[in-house]
Amino acid sequence: MASIQEIQNEIVEEFSMFDDWMDRYEYMIDLGKSVPVIDDQYKTDDHIIKGCQSKVWVHADLEEDTVKFSADSDAIITKGIIAILIRAWSGQKPADIIAADTAFIDQIGLKEHLSPTRANGLVSMIKQLKMYAVAYQSQLN
After folding, report:
1. Is the separation of the CB atoms in 111 and 122 below 8 Å?
2. What's the pTM?
3. Going by C-beta distance under 8 Å and a sequence separation of 6 or more, which residues neighbour residue 47?
4. Residue 52 designated active-site
């Protein structure tokens, strides 16, 4: 299994192939189509990420000793953003997710190309995924 850092480096490399931000948005939308789709039973207010202007639902399961995320959103760009995070962190150990830095997001230039509300939503998504990891880490201890 690739480490979080290796996956994040892959994502940075993929985004660097596109010079134009419109192409990067297209790529993000494509990534959104590959996100493991959340089961309808989790499309509830308990699973909504607060602080996002569009609706984003995230669910996490502990499988053996790794966290598996699934998600969905009613907005294609937002779904692409959560897909990037899930790709980097799903299937990893909780402690590794907690320790993971998010510099790769700055490296692909995501924050500076998002509206302030979407950038806040991105921060909320990161916090929520890390909170799931913290909860599961405490179960493993």
Report:
1. yes
2. 0.94
3. 38, 57, 58, 59
4. yes
